[in-house]
Amino acid sequence: MSFTVRAITLDLDDTLWPFAPIGVRIEQAIHDWMLLHSPRTARMFPIPAMRALRERIFADNAELAHDVSALRRLTLAHALRESGADLSLLESAFEAFYAARNQVECYPDSLDALQRLAARMPVAAITNGNADLQRIGLAGHFAFQLGACEHGAAKPDRGIFLAACTRLGYRPAEVLHVGDHVETDVAGAARAGLRACWLNRVGARWEREDVRPDLEFVALTELADWLEAQAREEDCLPDAAHAGLTGESSV
């Protein structure tokens, strides 16, 4: 398939890096912090109990689904309150969580591919999570980061995709969204009018009939290869044909 891509929007968790090891690290970091600063909380809420509490808080506060940091603070505040701890510990406990949350290990292909993509066109991050690209050290590869908390609604809400296109300065049809999730990334982007690339790292089978990705790759480097091949094809076209492909006028 051949089409013009002017800019890319990119999911983060499970697209640039796996989230599962981050989740394990977060749980241990919070528990270790509680053992040191609030032992009663650590005893009342060992890792399995804190996990169950987090799941309940998230389920009971669906109106905050776009703001995972707020939900994490609610979870920590509840644990401190229930264990009789000083609530002034909340922000320090959250910082322990957030430091662990931003310790990421990118997939082996991610950094090389990201550098190649960013050298070719603007790349913007769209995430439902609360990763901080500045703290991670990857912000320099991105035009900007748009989070669900900042926007006020999470993917697959079409508004967050359209807001990113507006900031990029391109029509949705000229923007390719890349992500791992069938609904929040592929279907959400497609419904908003963007091109959609499914980064299918696990080799799953596409089973949706109402929507399909424009592209599917098992690694981000494959997308970089595809874009470079597209550019080579355009360079080989006569001027008139090239103008028709890119939508530019030859007069």
TrEMBL record:
Keywords: Hydrolase. InterPro entries: HAD-like_sf, HAD-SF_hydro_IA, HAD_sf, S-2-haloacid_dehalogenase. Pfam families: Hydrolase. One of its GO terms (molecular function) is hydrolase activity. The keyword Hydrolase applies. The keyword Hydrolase applies. PANTHER family: HALOACID DEHALOGENASE, TYPE II (AFU_ORTHOLOGUE AFUA_2G07750)-RELATED, HYDROLASE, HALOACID DELAHOGENASE-RELATED. This is HAD-IA family hydrolase. It comes from Aromatoleum buckelii.
